[in-house]
């Protein structure tokens, strides 16, 4: 069985481990906690591990959550990728992925989530439980789609977008990069944006109200 190294920056490690064991495609070789931020991430021991994993053909996956608009997971993903880790996508056994949809590296599709035909999804994007990506919608890299969200047909989300629980994005709506939407908000038209800068974030984000 192929080996998989997990790198943890937050989020539901227990559930993802359960899904990996249930899927039986990978054996979990180990779990490593990554420190948030800093130019020394990953640490020298992790870099040595990644070099050995690359030599052995082992896979990697970075676990994170929506805190600080994905910044911890994004930073860890970029660091592991830069260090040469072979990063794979994962999905829950109950997730539904249409034929022909490509899951890029470090994508996670949670339980009971649905990805319909023609969807394009960037790397390091997470689709949480019971959410649906409609036909021919486009989701950029490093997005976090919260539980019970509905992304309608032909909608477009830029990179690094965060959608809270129960958000609905209407057909043909376009959200720019770094958009963040609160919980239970419905967006029916491509919105005007307000630039919001916060010292916690590494880049500007657009904050939308319902």
Automatic annotation (TrEMBL):
Residue spans crossing the bilayer: none
Matches recorded under Pfam families: Hexapep
Gene3D superfamilies with a match to the protein in the record: Hexapeptide repeat proteins
This protein's UniProt keywords: Transferase
Entry GO MF terms: transferase activity
Family: Belongs to the transferase hexapeptide repeat family.
Protein name listed in UniProt: Transferase family hexapeptide repeat protein
Organism in which the protein naturally occurs: Xylophilus ampelinus
């Amino acid at each position: 069985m192929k080996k998989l190294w997990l790198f943890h920056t937050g989020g539901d490690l227990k559930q993802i481990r359960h899904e990996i064991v249930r899927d039986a495609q990978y054996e979990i070789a180990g779990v490593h906690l990554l420190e948030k931020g800093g130019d020394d991430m990953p640490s020298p021991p992790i870099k040595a591990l990644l070099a050995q994993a690359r030599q052995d053909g082992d896979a990697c996956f970075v676990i994170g959550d929506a805190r600080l608009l994905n910044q911890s997971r994004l930073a860890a993903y970029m660091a592991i990728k830069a260090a040469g880790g072979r990063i794979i996508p994962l999905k829950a056994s109950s997730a539904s992925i249409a034929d022909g949809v490509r899951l890029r590296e470090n994508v996670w599709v949670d339980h009971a989530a649905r990805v319909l035909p023609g969807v394009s999804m960037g790397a390091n994007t997470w689709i949480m439980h019971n959410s649906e990506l409609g036909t021919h919608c486009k989701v950029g890299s490093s997005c976090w789609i919260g539980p019970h969200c509905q992304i309608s047909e032909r909608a477009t989300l830029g990179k690094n977008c965060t959608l809270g629980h129960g958000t609905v994005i209407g057909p043909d709506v376009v959200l720019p990069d770094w958009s963040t939407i609160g919980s239970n908000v419905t967006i029916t038209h491509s919105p005007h944006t307000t630039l919001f800068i916060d010292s916690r974030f590494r880049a500007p984000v657009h904050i939308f109200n319902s």
